Amino acid sequence: MRTFILKRILQAIPILFGISIIAFAIIQLPPGDYLTTYVNNLRSQGDVIGDEQVKALEEQYGLNQPLPAQYWKWISNFVRGEMGQSFYWNKPVNTLIGERIALSMAVSLFALILTYSIAIPIGLISATRQYTLTDNVFTVLAFIGVGLPSFLVALVLMYFGNRYLGLSAGGLFSIEYLDAPWSLARAWDLLKHMVLPALIIGISGTAGTIRVMRATTLDELSRPYVEAARARGLRETLAVLRYPVRVALNPIMSTIGWQLPALVSGEVLVSMVLGLPTCGPLLYTALITQDMFLAASFIMILSALTVIGTLLSDILLAWIDPRIRFGGIQ
Amino acid sequence: MTTQEMQQAEVKVEAEAKVEELSGRSIRLLTHRQLVLLRFRKNRLALVGIAILVVFYLMAIFCEFIAPYDPNRRFQGNVHIPPTRLHMRTAEGALTAPFYYKVERKTDPKTFERTYGEDTSRRYPVKLFVSGDKYAQWGLIPLDIHLFGADDPTAPLFLFGADAMGRDLLSRIVYGSRISLSIGLVGVFTSLLIGLILGGVSGYYGGMVDNIVQRIIELIRSIPTIPLWMGLAAALPPNWPQLRVYLGITIILSFVGWTTLARVIRGKFLALREEDYVLAALQAGARPAFVIREHLLPSFMSYILVHLTLAIPGMIIGETGLSFLGLGLVAPTISWGVLLKDAQKVQEVALHPWILLPAIFVLVTVMAFNFFGDGLRDAADPYSQRT
Fold this sequence. Notes:
The complex is a heterodimer of chains A (330) and B (387). With 330 residues, chain A is mostly helical. Helix content of chain A is 77%, strand content 1%. In chain A, strand 1 (85-86) and strand 2 (91-92) form a beta hairpin. In chain A, 37% of the residues are buried. Chain B has a three-stranded antiparallel beta sheet, with no helix packed on it. In chain B, strands 4-5 form a two-stranded antiparallel ribbon.
């Protein structure tokens, strides 16, 4: 087990390195550098900035150095937790993104939990009642759900919520808790507000999981060992729950790692439509205003957390399933 | 035999009988292609899917002719006019050709609330092949004939309502289909090119090269797509001409899209290489080129085709999402995503719900592609027992 964990962590390092290069490339890609934008902004506001000051700023951000040196400066600061200055907000990036990243992750994880707690029972019900009305209804729903783009669903739901329920636009907190310090009541308020966004973000994942769960359970149900369990007089529910379900859960558990990037990316879009105080809206303004330290930090942290999440789920899997631990299943 | 198996066997016998009835021949005498076609035709949803797609793509190809108005024509005083109602019966209840009434906007003097009423004093007929706004079909043939429309410009026909500038939303959706629907095809084609080259190389050379390509794929797939797309799209220079932005967006979409295809191609390549019939052909002295053409490609292309079909909706959603945010294509270019940008604010949508209509088109297209692709997937392997 220890070697497996070590091997998996070592595998994650080059991926994290690759992500940092892509994030850095995104800082560099826009024509002209962000300092020019910044200086132009200051000048248009009437500030007098001499060439020497521009030079000093260049020095501060290492812009006069070659690219590899700039990358090194950025990434070494980043690892130490100094993500640079947001030009647009004129604040350190750290203070801007802390809570938003946490909320984004909370919503994504909540969506993951909802996805599984809805999809697994439904897939099971569908499989044990194959070709009945219940099964057909769920199959059609799952079929539709796989293809629905979550941000459009959010848009349509917002309209109906506004029209028929008189709900105002999303958000994650009620007004009285907006700036309140953390407390149990505030956490409960957050949880209540997270249900709808999490459901929307989880739609396609839920639908996909229902289909996988149904298919694998069906495969397992016709195996001799289920028949043997029945022959020994086990009640039908027990015979199903105790053996085939455990096998059927395996492919679902092993794809948690693929669900995470999709959830995080869905969360970014949906939060913009619903106006949630998570990464999405801030990342968007950062990209629009070419606030590149902020944007790159977001992309870097979101991706890194996804990689770490995948890593954790892999380790969890290996802990549950010895076949993975010993490299039997690829 | 368990009850489950007996049921499955029954279903299978029934399916075979159905096939024999449909084709008039025994199932064992049909060629591969006939089996594929039969299997595909049995899937109703897939047929619905392809029918919708044919209609939508025809709409995209002939958008100038099908749209009743020039999509950029502004009708003064018709800002946010709700969809015009079509009538089939006169006030006396007699059945006639479809017609509509002119919509009049009134403002409540007290609340300033706007209300829309029909001016029933005059009936405006909807005509087929009416001559209206001038256009050049495919930018080449100057014409002014439209599939349908109304000839009185003082009472415009807004089947899907008008937007914030008094432009006909239906015409804009029809024109938008050209970009929204083609970007999926172009994007998938670019992905296929990259996927074929890198997946093929990966499967052919194996070892070190394979390892590197696989790690790159893993890297790209581990980054959440939307933030990555947003970052790359924001890097497109704002002063680029729209055609170049369009190409840029397709390349950004394929940057992620090729990874799935490369995996499929590599996997199939590796699996098929070991098949008995391929080994047998090689043993019998067939050249590799012959084996690839006669054995590998036929069993290979159907899977690639299925994956291509299922990859298109993702690309369409990607373009819509980026343009919706204002990071992809922007006005004056017309795409469904650009049109949806007007629907960003829920207050706007609450007042003028019809500006959400482009979303319906996106949803229907995506569903149609999924149904079609799913049918293809089942049909691509007509020997499997799935029913």
